[in-house]
Amino acid sequence: MHKYDHKKIEKKWQNIWEKKGVYHADDKSKKPKYYTLIEFPYPSGDGLHVGHPRPYIGMDVISRKRRMQGYNVLYPIGWDAFGLPTENYAIKTGKDPRVVTKKNTDTFRKQIKSLGVSFDWSREINTTDPKYYKWTQWIFLQFYKKGLAYKAKMTINWCPKDKIGLANEEVINGCCERCGTPVEKREKEQWMLGITKYAERLDKDLDTVDYLPQIKIGQRNWIGKSVGAEIEFKISSTNESIKVFTTRPDTIFGATFIALAPEVAKKITGKDFGIKVDTDRENKEKIGIDTGLKAKNPASGEQIPVFVVNYVSADYGTGAIMGVPAHDERDFEFAKKYNLPIIDVVIPIRVDNTNPHISGKKIVERKAVQAIIRNPKNGKILCLNWKAHPWTTFVVGGVEKGEDILEAARREVLEETGYKNIKFIRVLGGQVRSEFFAAHKDENRVAYFNAILFELENEDRIEVSREEIEKHEVVWKDPKDIRSDTMQCGELDIWLERLKNENAVNAENGILTNSGKFNGMDSENAKKEIIKFVGVEEKTTFKLRDWIFSRQRYWGEPIPIIHCSKCGMVPVPEKDLPVELPKVKNYQPTDSGESPLANISKWVNVKCPKCKGGALRETDTMPNWAGSSWYYLRYTDPKNKNAFADKKNLKYWTPVDWYNGGNEHTTLHLLYSRFWHKFLYDLKLVPTSEPYMKRTSHGMILGEGGVKMSKSVGNVINPNEIVKIYGADTMRVYEMFMGPFDQSVAWSDEAIIGPRRFLEKVWKLGELVEKNSVRVGARLRVKRRDFSLPDSTIAKLLNKTIKKVSEDIEAMHFNTAISAMMILATEMQKSESVSEKDFKMFLQILAPFAPHITEDLWQTLGEKKSIDLSVWPKWDENLIQDEEVTIIVQVNGKVRGQFKASVDISEAEAKSKAENLPEVRKWITTGVKRFVFIPRKLINIVV
RNA sequence: GCCCGAGUGGCGGAACUGGUAUACGCGCACGACUUAAAAUCGUGUCUCGCAAGGGAUGUGGGUUCGAUUCCCACCUCGGGCACCA
Fold first, then answer.
1. Average of pLDDT values for A411-419?
2. Which of the nucleotides lies closest to A893 (Cα–C1')?
3. Nucleotide nearest residue A485, measured CA to C1'
4. Are A644 and A49 within 8 A, CB to CB?
5. What is the pLDDT of residue A600?
6. pLDDT at site A283
7. What's chain A's average pLDDT?
8. Cβ–Cβ contacts within 10 Å for residue A295, how many?
9. Does A816 contact strand B, using a CB cutoff of 7 Å?
10. What is the pLDDT of residues A456-475, one digit of tens each?
11. Cross-strand pairs, A477
12. How long is the CA A743 to C1' B59 vector, in angstroms?
């Protein structure tokens, strides 16, 4: 046999696979189907870099394994080719984006093909192909017909110098990326898609799919479902009212003002107050202006002021909120600034589990106070060590009749500690209800605590009574020793939070107070009852906003609408689809910010499809998201001229069984395509309500040193260079081995040699197996030195490895799968003799990672059919069971020894064995306190 | 600011449901083979200590017989935040 020559064998097998079409998915098959999907790439001018193929290889491993498991696999690829970078390139160079895209996709295709990914290239699609975007436009028309595509005035970023609408990305520090001119906001009519109509289902149906938990959380947070109520506040002296949305109707008695979004205020008052909601991401200071209006709190009957503020968004809820400063941090900040009343209406509850109520004892309710005294000189806190009980507490005591909490606190401090001069700092928020057993009084206590922070002014003390001295000792404690495990205080977490953060408020549910007839009710019930009381119903709101769907750009799908002065907006008839992008001379938008399409009068001026009169085409185009919202459907029938895909094909192939993509796409793209899919499902055009059964994510590959790969940084690594030097198989194994698939990893030119050495080792093993075997007819037989008897070490390890690789692939733990195979290869090499049968099984489990070298060795060893058509090996459960295990012996958690024992050794036997180990014996002379035995694993002796 | 994820040797990383921390790979050192080098193979490689032992998984604390793993607080980095894809 010859040297491992990757260039030769990789080219050879790629040609054979392509000629035989082994990776073409079959639309009709008796096998069960499996649809694997990767996010189709945007063919940028930078070309493919080594980060692109990582997900393709990952899903290729899954796809190849599925084929060997007997599935008919669809693993397609295409190009998501509309978008800004190509357009900006066209603006700069004047080159036709079609030409640029063609060139880029050709490069990408050639690069990807050299990696031996088992894509079905016969189904390749391109979103910029009129035959494809015909159907993107067709789907848009369905949205339009159902009223889900509509026009609305929206604010956009506008560069007054370039006269162009800017993407958020193109705005750097409020200035245009190109010319540095400060960006203005401009109102513009935009096409919208009514995704909010699907918000509820997009949230709920997540229960039916298998997405990674953080992806589901991301989707849910984005949708932002919250249940609450819309409550009307009547404006005094007019007949009008303000509707607020709140998730906390139980706090309505604490509503001391109304806060309006600027747009809403303008609507109500007709005045512009000059306040804008900050779209900046940093938290800005809250600003408000009193409108002079008063509104009536429908629960308390109070007249409360109405403010315009910069922290309420018109897009969310009703654009108006009731300000409840006691129970919302933002409202609290605002109320403090504008001196608005803060009324506590919900008391949080804590139950002291270390000191719980004892049944049978009487329950006593009491108002009480915690005095927290800080010595400003050293930061220490005044505490009491109780003599009859194992407690440390703050200075604590009941509030007597006729006393306020401040008086009570000062009195307790004086009585219990003698300190005369303490300075009041602040009350730590509202009351807290604390339940505990008061052992010193032998009663169950329900205390309504306030806490007050003081500072010690000086050490002057009066003498403390004998009675108090017998009860407790006065101590100053370090703040780090004020913890829930050192202090007897069930509600301590609340005080610590409020000590740290002056703006901390109680946002928890609890027991109502200051709330008229609802006093004493818990929040959950109060929410329902108060909604009834003010005469409204529960209302669900979403953060999700409708989708701005139009762009004033050239390189996107034209929106297929015609504006007729007589008939209004008229959809382009289906027979006239696609509305093709005309060629233009200049890709720069018009002076008024319209798409460059607006300059082509020949294209713009059309006959109205209805009245045949003069009409104008819509010149807006669709965003890049459009084509990628349904591409997985087109793959099932990519050449269909009569429908976006044939129903039979859709029924057979969809839903996608496993979709893997970047972390950066797990909210927007995923949500948008789920929305389109659900819409199509409602039109009975697709057979399932969810497009993807399973969704996983991969991490990026960064340049050396951990920075993003980009042409501008100059750290782009071209996979073709790697393929040339090391081969596609090495590249594939390395990309799967370099780190956990779902996390970002930095590329290393040095480390890739490891996978190469591994494959060379495999090649040599192949030589060894071939040399030790003799051909009998078409079969290879082992001639000599075959140690792989059923109980041999190699056979055992092989079976364990088959199990591990099989399972790791499913979990996308490709790196550990490869590690296991490296160990197996090293052991095989050490044994110097491996049976043909065992070696072939090893080739099979390696094949998804390194398809070329394994195919070559497989057929060299006499197989006639592709290794891809072989059956994925099964492991033998009997062979992976160990009879003997190593048991670790720890003393006080430190490893002191170990011994071998049979797996079913009894605890008593293990104990005597462990205790008799000389290296253990010297540690346990003081006597064994406790003995922990974990079968098959470990013993811990506590002395 | 908000949401999600991650911090372990010189480097990439491993450790299943809380049970020997550092598997596997890179690098480095030494040895074998070689006239020599490369390649290959073998041995070693967290750290302090002569040793007995001790200390290390971003930082501080907690729970536990036992914590990289669970809980709390904090720090740093990456991703997303609606016109980048």
1. 95
2. B66
3. B62
4. no
5. 92
6. 54
7. 90
8. 25
9. yes
10. 999 999 999 999 999 999 98
11. A381
12. 24
Provide, in whole angstroms, the distance separating residue A792's CA from nucleotide B43's C1'. Answer: 26
A932 Cβ within 7 A of any nucleic strand B atom: yes
Interatomic separation, CA of residue A704 and C1' of nucleotide B56, rounded (Å):
27
Burial of A763 (0-12, 13-18, 19+ CB in 10 A): buried
- Whose CA is closest to A617, among A626, A609, A625? A609
Q: Hey, is A825 helix, strand or coil?
A: helix
d(CA A11, CA A14): 5
Strand B-proximal residues of A, range 711-740, CB below 7 A, are: 737-740
Whether nucleic acid strand B comes within 7 Å of the CB of A623, the answer is yes
pLDDT at A279: 57
Say if residue A204 is exposed, middle or buried (CB neighbours under 10 Å; 0-12, 13-18, 19+).
exposed
Find tokens 């253990």 and name the residue.
A920
Q: How far is the CA of A636 from the C1' of B24 (A)?
A: 40
The answer to whether the C-beta of A52 is closer than 7 A to strand B is no
Q: State residue A278's pLDDT score.
A: 62
CA closest to B79 C1', residue: A664
Q: Using one digit for the tens of pLDDT, what is the confidence trace for A154-170?
A: 888 888 887 777 777 77
CA–C1' distance A682–B9 (Å)?
57
Q: Which residues of chain A (59-118) touch nucleic strand B at CB < 7 A?
A: 80, 82-85
For chain A, give the percent of residues with pLDDT over 70: 97
pLDDT at A776 over 60: no
User: What is the arithmetic mean of pLDDT over A360-378?
Assistant: 91
d(CA A474, CA A480) in angstroms, rounded, equals: 18
Give Cβ neighbours of residue A675 (< 8 Å, ≥ 6 apart). Answer: A193, A195, A198, A202, A547, A629
**pLDDT above 60 (res A791):** no
pLDDT value at residue A2: 65
Q: What is the pLDDT of residue A281?
A: 54
ipTM over 0.90: yes
Which nucleotide shows the minimum CA-to-C1' distance to residue A820? B24
- Average pLDDT of the residues in A915-941: 88
The reply to whether A420 has its C-beta less than 7 Å from any atom of strand B is no
A42 touches strand B (CB under 7 A): yes
Q: What is the pLDDT of residue A644?
A: 97
Give the integer Cα–Cα distance in Å for A278 and A39.
34
What would the mean pLDDT of A642-664 be, rounded to a whole number? 95
* Residue reference for tokens 């977490």: A493
> Which residues 892-911 in chain A have a CB closer than 7 A to strand B?
892-895, 898
In this prediction, residues A566-587 reach a mean pLDDT of 93
- Which nucleotide is nearest to A127 if distance is taken from CA to C1'? B85
Residue A418's contacts (CB-CB under 8 Å, 6 or more residues apart) are A461, A462, A463, A464, A474
Long-range contacts of A494-497 (CB under 8 A, 24+ apart): A494/A348, A494/A350, A494/A429, A494/A432, A495/A370, A495/A372, A495/A428, A495/A451
Q: How far apart are CA A552 and CA A597, in angstroms?
A: 9
According to DSSP, the β-strands at A320-323 and A694-698 are unpaired
